[in-house]
Amino acid sequence: MSFPLSQATPVADSFVPLSRQSSGPLRTRPTTTATSVASQDIVCAVSESRGISSTVGLAFVNLSTAETVLCQICDSQTYAKTITKISVFEPTEILFMNTARDSKLYCILHENIPDTTFTFLDRRCWSEKAGHEYVDRLAFPEDLESVKLALGGHFFAACCLAATLKYVELELNRIFASHSLRIRVEPSQGIMSIDLSTIVSLELVQNIHSTKSKHSLFGLLNETLTSMGSRLLRANILQPSTEQSKLLARYDAVEDLSTKEDMFVSVRQALKGFIDADKVLSSLILVPTKRTFQYVEQSVNNVIMLKSYVSSIKSIYKALGTAQSSLLLTIRELCAPAGHRGVEQLIESTLNDHVAYQTKPLDLRNQRIYCVRTGVNTLLDVARQTYKETNMDAVDLIAQLSETHNLNLDLKFDTARQYYISISAAETNCYLPDIFINVYRKKKRIECQTLDLVKLNQKIVDAHNEVVSMSDQTIQELIRDVCTEVSTLFRVSEAIAMLDMLSTFAQLATCNDYIRPELTDVLAIKSGRHPLREKIHTKKYVPNDAYATPQSRFQIITGCNMSGKSTYIRALALMTIMAQIGSFVPAEYASFPLVHQLFARVSTADDLEANVSTFASEMREMAFILRSLELSPDNNKSMVLIDELGRGTSPTDGLSIALAIAEALLCTTHALTWFVTHFHDLATILSARPGAVSLHLAADLTADGSKMTMLYRIAEGVPPAQAYGLALANLVDFAPDVMRIARDVSAAMDALARRRHSRARSVGIAHKRRLLLALREQLVLARCGTVSGEALRRWLVRLQDEFVVRMDAADEEGSLCEGDSDGGGDSDSEGNVRLLDSDGGNDGDDDGDISLVGIHSGNDGDDGADDMSCDSDGEVLATDKHPTHHSALVFYTRTSCLYLVSFSWSRPTGERDLLVEFSFSCG
């Protein structure tokens, strides 16, 4: 009896021929071959809304584990969240609607997700109604209502589900049994968002230098004993939780396991016997549309593995007998014998008690032959007897050949040749009788067959196939009955995966002296350690403290090369991720706020494949980070790590851009930011800003600069400017002349810089004096000239504008050279003066605009009530009627340096004859 196939498919239209396009040219990208994820067969469907605000629907169908994940993302125009989500699952094939060939989303995914096949399906396959019908038919009965409720309003996710399952059915020729598919609607909230660049640069799942190295966070934490646990650990590292209740439950479970040695040892021992239950259950419920003998044969293997899986569950229940944490008690309840007793009875009534899954080909074949109990099928018993007798004939043949030819012959078996003969090469003396055929020499052994043995092999194969075919009816009936309980078995598998991950955390905490973190609003770490570095440098690693609050959210880290700056910020990120997957962390004390977004710009390599330099790559990544933070409504729950931004270009440009980006992060976001830089000026400039903190990694340098000791300790403030580079160069075996010349050049450059600074300062003062003298000369000419009235007023305004621009440029040049301008105020040696109006009072207008402040006038001996003044454009606002007046023309610049020009005029006949007298009240 064949396994009952699904009912009529919900999509009535015929399946349109597909077109495939590989995402080429192929480029190297981080893979996770060591994680058992790359071997999975995952199909993904992608659909998006129209319009500026992009809503992207995703459906992932894992054919290896019979799990379907649906999600709908509100993404930006860069589709960063979509790329990250797809990268987490690493699908082998991505499905698109055939009308989306030229869409921006397809182009971006094609560029950023290489080594993946893209397939286009007809629009008719993307039906929301069909998606909901698939849910009704395939979801677990107990999950149906919750899945339908979660999928409500997710139009694009439902369309993607329909397209994916239609593709699996008609193109891959596989269908799922009714109510046997794990369907999970994954919300966009509740997990930390980590973009692909951050995953790679922080080496979360793979070492950036070697794919075979275990020096990654996943490689460190992956002490799991089951494939299910390994997959769960990887998924948690890439998508840490932001749900406090879930994390606290995991902390309790890890603490429970790590403090009860007997329970911990029993759990780890019980986990060793588990097969990959997800793949076994998936193989049982995923049926090909065209049945083959290989499928029938594999079905027998699957039920044998199912028996092994079910029989191992009770050991977990027993091992957790002393558990107290709520999460461990839930796992124990799921593994209770009563929950899977029905499946166990079905298996016991069909399979022999001694049947167990074997890995050797001959043992596995014999298990397939004798797995069904004797007496269930009489014809099956007869066929098994024939198989047994034919095997005995092969054994007798080898014994006869050994005796006839006086050779020590061993009977061996492999899947390709079936039975064959193995002989020691030393026994044959380079001569083998002609009866032996298919001779093959393998090192010190000779492998061969005889014609009679080949004939017996064929008889054995025929007998084996007959037994398997006869067993198929019984096996398929068993599978059909087991599928009614498959949801329970999948839940047990998920519980075992969680227990495996938690026991791994407990082992790491015990062996590496990790502590339980706290979840608060403050990041505070006492003696924190980089989890990977401390494994490599067991004796030399120096722990460090960290403290960050909203009032100290922007931390500028400086220090010399090799002082440990990058290691310090990476350790903070890795400990944060560990805390948000439920693991203990390497520190004496640690508390963390729940981080919802993590960004890291720490890679310094050129992207040769994309023809992008280090600097261009930095700018592209920083633009993405700033844009993501700007669009995020809760950027105060974000963490940003930036390592030596701007070092890929000239020092001036690098400092300018680094300062601008730092200003944007500090002033427009509230993210916790660690900004590693070699630009000490950046720390000096931002030190007074609210929220900014300057720190450095300390180092000791001898007085002569010949020796330097790295302390690897975080300290407050900016380190003094010292020749750390020369001290580091001393560690390398340079020739003495090279280092001597380097020191001489460094000293000469320092002296030249000091001379330039002094000269520039003197030149600046001289420049100002020349401008003042030129102004005086212009005013003298005006007093002696013939221009008067309105023309003279306009000329004075223009003269003021020119003077202000030139003096402003001189002030800015001087501030760059000197760096100590006091921005105005009392008169000092630099030529800065107190801002005064004409009668000696404070001007009060300190907004820094460039303008003609006014012409304040008063009659000699008068109380000054009648005035003539000008606005900022030089327009006359009022005039008095007195014939003689004295006033002052006020000049000032953005640096609040004030210049006063006293003058007087007379109007005996009512005409505006302006008689200018001048004096300067500047230093």
TrEMBL record:
Residues 814-829, 840-849, 860-871 have a biased composition (Acidic residues). Residues 814-871 are annotated as: Disordered. GO terms for cellular component: nucleus. GO terms for molecular function: ATP binding; ATP-dependent DNA damage sensor activity; mismatched DNA binding. Keywords: ATP-binding, DNA-binding, Meiosis, Nucleotide-binding. Gene3D superfamilies: 1.10.1420.10, MutS, connector domain, P-loop containing nucleotide triphosphate hydrolases. The keyword Nucleotide-binding applies. Coiled coil: none annotated. One of its GO terms (biological process) is reciprocal meiotic recombination. The keyword Methyltransferase does not apply. Residues 638-654 form the DNA mismatch repair proteins mutS family domain. It comes from the Eukaryota. InterPro entries: DNA_mismatch_repair_MutS_C, DNA_mismatch_repair_MutS_clamp, DNA_mismatch_repair_MutS_core, DNA_mismatch_repair_MutS_sf, DNA_mmatch_repair_MutS_con_dom, MutS, MutS_con_dom_sf, P-loop_NTPase. Pfam families: MutS_II, MutS_III, MutS_IV, MutS_V. Belongs to the DNA mismatch repair MutS family. This is Muts domain V-domain-containing protein.
